[in-house]
Amino acid sequence: MIVREAIVMPVSMVPEGAVVEIVSFSQRSGRGFIQKLSSMGIYPGAVIRVLRNQFPGPLIVDVMGTRIMLGHGMANRIYVRIIR
Amino acid sequence: MIVRVALVGNPNVGKSVIFNNLTGAHQYVGNWPGVTVEKKEGKCNFDDVEIHITDLPGIYSLTANSIDELIARNFIIEEKPDVVIDIVDGSNIERNLYLTLQLIELGANVVVALNMMDLAKEKSYEIDIKRLEELLGVPIVPTVAPKKEGMTELCEKVATVAKRKVSATKIRYNSKLEDAISKVASILSSYPTLQKYNMRWLAIKILEDDGEVIRYVKEISENDPVVWDKIEDIKAELNKEFGDVIVAMADERYNVISQIVSKAVKRITAEEEVSITDMLDEVLTHKYLGIPIFLAIMWTVFQFTFTVAAPFSDAIDMFFAYTADLARSYLQPEWFASLIADGIISGLGFVLIFVPNIFMMFLALSILEDSGYLARVAFIMDRIMHKLGLHGRSFIPMLLGFGCNVPAIMATRTIENENDRLITILVNPLMSCSARLPVYVLFAAVFFSGIAGTVIFSMYVLGIVLAILMALLFRKTLFPGKPSPFIMEMPPYLIPTARSVLSHMWLRGSKFLKKAGTFIVGGLILIWAMSNVPYGAPVEETLIGQLGHLLAPIFAPLGWDWRIAVALFFGFIAKEIVVGSLGVLYGIENPDPTTLYGPLRAAMTPLSAYALMAFTLIYVPCIATLATIKQETGSIKWTLIALAYELILAYVVALIIISIGSLVGIV
Amino acid sequence: MNTRNTILTVYSTIVGIAYLVYGIGEIFYSISLNSLGIFIFPFWADPIAGFSLIVVSMIFFTAAKHLSSDHKKAYMYIFVGILLAALLALTHVSVMIANWAECCLLLNEDYAEWTWFSDLNPAIPLFALTLPLIQPLRKIKWKKV
């Protein structure tokens, strides 16, 4: 059985090197926000890895093998759960 | 036979390379009507087939959320190209297939070009192409674009499938979704006008709350409440089942994709191997080292741009001086010799002297961009840019602005959000472009010798400070709101090919040359004309002198005389002209600036000289820049605003400098 | 493995110190324009050039620091450090060639007293100093992308 951390947090607070699973987006997220992120591989259920986190700055995450940079505004609205 | 083809794909998949491979010299670059998005079209021939190719913007999906996506999908829907080539990055298949699935939903006649097969191999992917073709239901052609591999096969496949009818796709999502989709589709099918579109796609879009599609269908259905209530019901059911339909659709697509990929793609080695990109990124995006490293790299860029390019510039200078002398000695009558030598030849030479600098800078920047480093720069600078209300992505145009504002403003195209883009454009001219440097150098040498370097440096700093202030001001007043969400893909580091670097350099550099060249040469000839009519008269009495005396009162409070006023006036055409015109105005034939030192010292004080330098920094973007602003913003209003605010700001700042200076007692 | 690590750490630190010393030296030299005694190579009067040398030194210090804990990471820093050192050296060489062109091809009077020696910069020999570090790098397996 995989033990997962039960706490859900914005990905902006995840330490470098952690692997997370996307849980949901913030309530206030518009359609455009969700669709844009989904089209780049970030959608609920997806597993991504945080490569760089310069809180309160931008993040670099690894999504399906691609490196993607997220502004911290966006990172604050993506809720995740740490897996590893 | 003529076959019409559209090229689509994610950004960074090598679409432009393939486009260039196929069309070569036969391409035409323009704009999509009504917007400032670039449109590229070209032709190529294969056997007896003529293929017309339209390059669509790089997109991640076909929603209605951005101009790029709308352009792409409207083209496919309205223009109905015979084939849509979807360029997929073979080393990144899963994410790329998201777009492919949407193209298939749309009912387009898709041929997939599986590009970057070499990178895929590096990443130890083994792709079973036949199996992939079966599962997706579309033909796939492997390619390696930079090596031009697969191009003929691609054309061949395109020609073969061009005129066939697209069969209904066998890709199906989960049953509940499919259920809803067919229900909505059958509702829509009662409207004959909609028959020409793909019903399934329309249904999916309606379920996804697609603004454009909903608007259109509502129009066709005349907002019939019966129909729309039914649709809302279906949606509500789905929402109950899945929470959020949009999310559910995305999830489903990826589900289908991962099923396909697990059957057709194998990865041999372990994932944990370190790649060169990882190695570079570890250091280059380091929290503390990142910015200093960037500064060091920028230093090398500037060294190349100025010092290394210098011999070329000097060589050009000597050549033109020599030719001008020849003209002066051998041409009759004297006024004609002067026109050719001082007007045209010197004018041309004046522009061409900058060519090595500009091209060197663009060469360096192209290398940085193609290697992928510039994306990291956007990341490093994002935190700082954020405080200004902008993005990391706005940083690069600012950087280019130090070379020349024309290509810098063109580079703002990558900024999606209109407001962010406008702020970046409006503030850009404050980045001291290389054209202003001759003015600084001249006045610093005359009035501040010894600390000349520092004084010039202070001008750059002043420009940056003002840019920051104006950016903040604009953000608070004209464009309230937070900067738009920032998400950007970072391509892996690659060693740029000579071909692409040189072509980028040429693209940007030649734009500068064409625009600046015509204006500067024209401007110098104009000045020559005005300063020589009537010929032989002392400068004050020529046309230029009269203009000067007209303008002088405006600048009197700043301590500048009529000559400076005229020089500034002509600086409007191109900042490079200011020094040249000063030479003319003081009646100096020799292009050597040192002969100006005496007259200038007599004409103004160090304080007013400093104010003048500041004024030149700020006052007005040259005509070429203004033209570019108009082209990129598509509106006269913003161009005029840029013009106005800079003039006012320049005058105010110069006034402040003089006032503070005199108060403190500096002369 | 441990002795190798120690040697690397020491060498990395030495490289770092070398770059640091010359970097600071160059900055002071450019600001005060004083002759600071006997040096192996004459300096350029460019503070930012000195600054870049200091940046490289920081990279090597970080590499040395990581060598004790995560040597894979340390190699990354060494790799980039060498690259950057090469870039700086290349830049200086290019400037030298450009100035040579000014002096001897174009016969520009501003450069009448120029010699190869007047542009020699510590960045070049310092880069040579980093070269031995390439050897341990070859031992790692890394892939292109």
Q: How do the strands and helices of this protein lay out in sequence?
A:
The complex is a heterotrimer of chains A (84), B (667) and C (145).
Chain A: E1 8-10, E2 19-25, H1 31-39, E3 47-53, E4 59-63, E5 66-70, H2 72-75, E6 78-82
Antiparallel strand pairs in A: 1-6, 2-3, 2-6, 3-4, 4-5
Chain B: E1 2-9, H1 15-23, E2 27-31, E3 38-46, E4 49-55, H2 67-79, E5 83-89, H3 93-106, E6 110-115, H4 117-122, E7 125-127, H5 129-136, E8 140-142, H6 151-161, H7 175-188, H8 199-207, H9 211-220, H10 225-242, H11 245-264, E9 265-267, H12 276-284, H13 290-308, H14 310-330, H15 334-352, H16 355-371, H17 373-387, H18 395-401, H19 405-410, H20 418-427, H21 437-447, H22 452-477, E10 487-490, H23 498-531, H24 543-555, H25 562-571, H26 577-585, H27 597-603, H28 606-618, H29 623-633, H30 636-664
Parallel strand pairs in B: 1-4, 1-5, 5-6, 6-8
Antiparallel strand pairs in B: 2-3, 3-4, 7-9
Helix pairs in contact in B: 3-11, 5-11, 7-8, 7-10, 13-16, 14-15, 15-23, 16-23, 20-22, 21-22, 21-27, 21-28, 22-28, 23-26, 24-25, 25-26, 28-30, 29-30
Chain C: H1 2-32, H2 47-67, H3 71-105, H4 123-130, H5 134-137
Commentary on this structure:
The complex is a heterotrimer of chains A (84), B (667) and C (145). By secondary structure, chain A is an alpha+beta fold. In chain A, 15% of the residues lie in helices and 38% in strands. Chain A is built from 2 helices and 6 strands. Chain A has a 6-stranded antiparallel beta sheet with strand order 1-6-2-3-4-5. In chain A, 50% of the residues are buried. The model of chain A has no long low-confidence stretch (mean pLDDT 85). With 667 residues, chain B is α/β, with parallel strands linked by helices. Chain B has a 7-stranded mixed beta sheet, sandwiched between helices. In chain B, strands 7-9 form a two-stranded antiparallel ribbon. In chain B, helix 7 runs antiparallel to helix 10 (225-242), helix 14 packs antiparallel against helix 15 and helix 21 (437-447) crosses helix 22 (452-477). Chain B starts with a strand and ends with a helix. In chain B, 48% of the residues are buried. The mean pLDDT of chain B is 81. With 145 residues, chain C is an all-alpha fold. Chain C has one domain (2-137). Chain C is 68% helix and 0% strand. Chain C has helices at residues 2-32, 47-67, 71-105, 123-130, 134-137. The longest helix of chain C is centred in the middle third of the chain and has 35 residues, at 71-105. The radius of gyration of chain C is 18 Å and the shape is elongated. Residues 33-44 of chain C have low confidence and may be disordered. The A-B interface holds A 25, 31-41, 43-46, 51-52, 54, 56-58, 60, 63-74 and B 60-61, 63, 65-66, 91-92, 94-95, 98-99, 123, 208-209, 244, 246-247, 250-251, 254, 277, 281, 285, 287, 375, 378-379, 382-383, 386, 391-392, 482-483, 485-492.
